[in-house]
């Protein structure tokens, strides 16, 4: 039987939960059975992992998913964990688990991770012995990174003596092959327009909150100077794509012959006010600067970014920030830990046209960081204009307003609500009306791109 491995889709969540339930049946009679029977994969958490590209499925000819692997980046640092791997018992013994494991480890290596960790059972042949065959070694279970998992085991009554933690070191990524980079989305926690420059651009004040969710950019260095985008982005021709424009802009500063193949996994809605295109461009600038050994400093990269779009510098610098000017004068902020329900009304709002709207308030009195921090300043100058012109966005704001204070991000069309806990954000997202799409994302002070860059730098220790 042939199968292939691909990224899981959100509509496969139920099928994957069913695979997990079926796989657990193999533990009947084992000491872990009682615990496995009671605790199952939370679908909403799995859905969030799928949205972050951390789940892969094995699919057979009929299109049926028969196994999956789920990586968990929560551990932080240079390691990534295997949260779950299951294959339908009816499809066991066919190398599907091994292929899923290799696929996920290959991705982790290309993303610059140094190690894959997992927790499993010592005495079950398809657990620890299987992983040992695939390069994992038992490690000290008192290591701090396993404390949380052990605590959960205790709560769930899991047989602690049979629990082992295993690690597989990953070789450094081959920098001449594909490498994988995050391009996080942002929301604007408020947005005020305080003036207009002679060139027509608007002076604004905003707070950019970077998120832990976004697009994925894959890069493969070329030595013939070619810049090629290998994936289609609907509505964006190759030459107009900000990833291609960013690479070309950087080329002038890179060693002769520097080129790249580029793949983009678009997850962030385009023209949604979440800065997806700007973030893609920033990721290309930052990652190719490292891969090409171009040696540009952050200020120079941010200036190149500004030439591509007002929102690009914040993604290059990679800190949630208070912004002024056209969005390029940035003061990093350390913001409280918050989660966001981001609602996509599936509407395209043209940024340029909104900035030209005659009814836009463009002479607001300047706000201060303290008025923002006190919660007094949360409005978005575009919101009344977008509400009046785009009824779908107005409907999304009204629905989300039912749970708290909904806000527009940037010039829209996406709207969001800030919450104190991931559980509350997920509970709201679960109730998302048909016709809108909800995403749950965590606010980050430091961009996942900077975290990835640090991982890659750690690979050879010389700043590459
Ligand atoms: C409104 C914001 C808020 O974060 O975000 P989005 O809604 O795009 O995410 C940004 O200011 C958008 O930045 P970005 O999308 O990079 O804008 P650009 O490509 O530079 O400009 C698009 C058009 O918007 C207008 N523009 C943009 C920024 C600015 N400060 N003043 C402007 O007048 C210009 O007419 C420009 O032609
Ligand atoms: N890689 C890209 N991803 C998304 N949009 C892109 C890209 N390259 C160019 N664009 C163009 O930039 C526009 C704005 O994109 P985006 O940054 O996603 O939204 P926003 O500026 O509203 O936050 C899109 O409508 C698209 O035409």
Describe the structure.
The structure is a single chain. The protein is of the alpha+beta class and about 475 residues long. The protein has two domains: about 5-170, Aminopeptidase; about 180-445, Ribosomal Protein S5, domain 2, CATH 3.30.230. It has helices spanning about 15-25, 35-40, 45-50, 95-110, 130-135, 145-155, 240-250, 275-290, 300-310, 310-315, 350-355, 370-375, 385-390, 390-400, 420-430, 450-460, and strands spanning about 5, 55-60, 65-70, 80-85, 115-120, 135-140, 165-170, 180-195, 200-220, 225-230, 260-265, 320-325, 330, 340-345, 405-410, 415-420, 435-445. The strands form two sheets. Strands 8, 9, 10, 11, 12, 13, 14, 15, 16 and 17 form a ten-stranded mixed sheet that branches. It has a seven-stranded mixed sheet with strand order 1-2-3-4-5-7-6. 4-diphosphocytidyl-2-C-methyl-D-erythritol 2-phosphate binds next to strand 8, strand 9 and helix 11. It catalyses: 4-CDP-2-C-methyl-D-erythritol + ATP = 4-CDP-2-C-methyl-D-erythritol 2-phosphate + ADP + H(+). Pfam families: Acetyltransf_7, GHMP_kinases_C, GHMP_kinases_N. Pathway: Isoprenoid biosynthesis; isopentenyl diphosphate biosynthesis via DXP pathway; isopentenyl diphosphate from 1-deoxy-D-xylulose 5-phosphate: step 3/6. Keywords: ATP-binding, Isoprene biosynthesis, Kinase, Nucleotide-binding, Transferase.
């Amino acid at each position: 039987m042939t199968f292939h491995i691909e990224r899981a889709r959100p509509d496969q969540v139920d099928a994957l939960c069913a695979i997990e339930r079926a796989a657990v049946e193999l533990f009947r009679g084992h000491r872990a059975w009682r615990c496995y029977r009671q605790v199952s994969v939370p679908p909403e958490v799995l859905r969030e992992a799928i949205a972050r590209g951390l789940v892969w499925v094995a699919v057979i000819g009929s299109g049926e998913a028969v196994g999956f692997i789920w990586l968990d980046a929560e551990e932080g640092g240079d390691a990534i964990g295997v949260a779950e791997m299951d294959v339908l018992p009816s499809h066991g013994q066919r190398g599907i688990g091994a292929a899923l494991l290799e696929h996920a480890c290959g991705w982790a290596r290309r993303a610059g991770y140094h190690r894959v960790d997992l927790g499993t059972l010592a005495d079950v042949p398809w657990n620890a012995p299987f992983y040992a065959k695939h390069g994992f070694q038992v490690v000290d279970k008192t290591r701090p990174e396993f404390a949380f998992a052990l605590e959960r085991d205790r709560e769930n009554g899991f047989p602690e003596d049979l629990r082992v933690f295993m690690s597989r070191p990953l070789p450094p990524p081959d920098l001449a092959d594909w490498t994988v980079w995050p391009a996080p989305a942002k929301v604007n926690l408020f947005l005020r327009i305080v003036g207009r420059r002679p060139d027509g651009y608007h002076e604004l004040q905003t707070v950019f909150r970077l998120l832990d969710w976004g697009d994925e950019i894959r890069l493969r260095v070329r030595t013939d100077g070619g810049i090629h985008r290998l994936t289609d982005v609907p509505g964006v021709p190759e030459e107009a794509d900000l990833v291609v424009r960013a690479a070309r802009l950087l080329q002038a500063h890179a060693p002769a012959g520097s080129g790249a193949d580029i793949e983009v996994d678009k997850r962030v809605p385009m023209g949604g006010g979440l800065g997806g295109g700007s973030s893609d461009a920033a990721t290309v600038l930052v990652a190719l600067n490292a891969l090409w050994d171009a040696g540009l400093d952050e200020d120079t990269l941010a200036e190149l970014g500004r030439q591509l779009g007002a929102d690009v510098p914040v993604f290059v610098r990679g800190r949630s920030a208070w912004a002024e000017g056209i969005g390029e004068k940035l003061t990093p902020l350390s913001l409280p830990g918050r989660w966001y329900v981001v609602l996509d009304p599936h509407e395209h709002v043209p940024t340029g046209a909104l900035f030209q709207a005659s009814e836009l308030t463009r002479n607001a009195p300047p706000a201060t960081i303290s008025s923002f921090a006190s919660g007094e300043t949360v409005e978005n100058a575009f919101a009344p204009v977008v509400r009046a012109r785009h009824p779908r966005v107005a409907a999304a704001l009204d629905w989300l307003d039912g749970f708290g204070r909904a806000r527009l991000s940037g010039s829209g069309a996406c709207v969001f609500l800030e919450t104190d806990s991931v559980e509350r954000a997920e509970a709201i997202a679960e109730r998302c009306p048909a016709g809108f799409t909800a995403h749950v994302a965590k606010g980050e002070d430091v961009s996942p791109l900077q975290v990835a860059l640090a991982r890659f730098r750690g690979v050879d220790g010389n700043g590459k």
